[in-house]
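Subject: Interface between my chains keeps coming out wrong

I've been trying for a while to get a sensible model of this assembly. When I model each chain on its own everything looks fine, but I need the whole thing in one frame so I can look at the contacts. Pasting all components below, labels as-is. Any help appreciated, I'm running out of ideas.
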Amino acid sequence: MKSFNYHAPKDVKDASKLASSNSAFLAGGMTTIPSMKLGLASYKDVIDIKNIKKLSGIKVSGKTVTIGATTKHVEVAESKDVKKAIPALAKLAGNIGDAQVRNRGTIGGSISNNDPSACYPSACMALNAVIHTNKRKIEAEKFFTGMFETALKSGELVEAVEFQIPEKADYQKHPNPASRYAIIGVFVAKHKKDVNVAVTGAKSCVYIDKDLSKKLSSSFSVSAIEGTDVKSSGMNSDMHASAEYRANLVSLYAKKAVEAC
Amino acid sequence: MTKVTLEVNGKKVSKEVPDHTLLSVFLRDNLNLTGTHVGCDTSQCGACVVHVNGKSIKSCSTLAADVEGSKVTTIEGLAKDGKLHPMQAAFKKTHGLQCGYCTPGMVMSAVDLLQTKKNPSDQEIREWLEGNICRCTGYQNIVAAVKEAATKM
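Reply #2:
Try treating it as a single job with all components included. I did that and got this:
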């Protein structure tokens, strides 16, 4: 790993001042550190945000659950508040990576990295999340812009993610047997007025399957999406799953999720 | 350079190291605690698992500076007064190892599991050990070891 300067500021203002085009914010480091070790990324300054107290914690209000950026996966998975308000979100967090990754990895890190196979982005999309940064609030749909790309600008730091509490929701994942990343992950959320079906792992970036969402909005049942032809065009094809197989999994796991709701 | 002060296996240590020093490197190269192994070096194999403030983590993917001020337990810190920790004794008894390379990480992960779950099922043990890869045993005797240790811890 190439050398860098390590910083651990105590507030967001200082963190922001240290940021440059040649810096990275460090939360759990579960992607940043391996990427630096492999030489895929290198920075002059690494800004550890763990000491910024206000970035950690879980708050439930009437209609939303807000999770601080440095809150670890294990904390979300074990949170009584999250389990009560959005059990699907706690379940998702409890199945990310392995126990050691969940002990370090954070929600802010996961969504800022926007890995095309990460679990959290699908929850953000399906649960109409609003991403709070040190500069503004961004709707999930506008936040995830492409493969490993987000709307975050240089020096902009995710502070918290605010999820809308749905009537019902479930997340179903077909994990890669080694990494536990989603070969396919489908997050179905039934809100008062409509249903969102968010898909991760299938394409270069998380997306809402509009067809499945529309059908489930008119009738929230497995039969409503039975026989839906999910198109494989634009889907990833690799040694683990072809595009056609992924397309089939999207439809299958959407049904599983509806069943589990 | 950065000064890293930790409590490792109950002893306070302080060393001046380059900022990018990994915890695994700090333990092995600076403290000569070579029981913590580095297998894949890409965070998948779990041979490097240690406890930081009681929780298992992968030391090859953590900066030493990041855990400044923490209590770290490595495999060397488990045995007390020359007596094996119940998990180590269970691995020995059930032959939960062959080459032994993954064993320190396996043991540290398994100890963390039993701290939170007293009597895990086979399924729970296997799921918990997802982050620890063994290429010799086929895992059967590792699961048996964790079950055996659960009766002693």
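Reply #3:
Confirming on my end. The longest strand of chain A covers residues 182-190.
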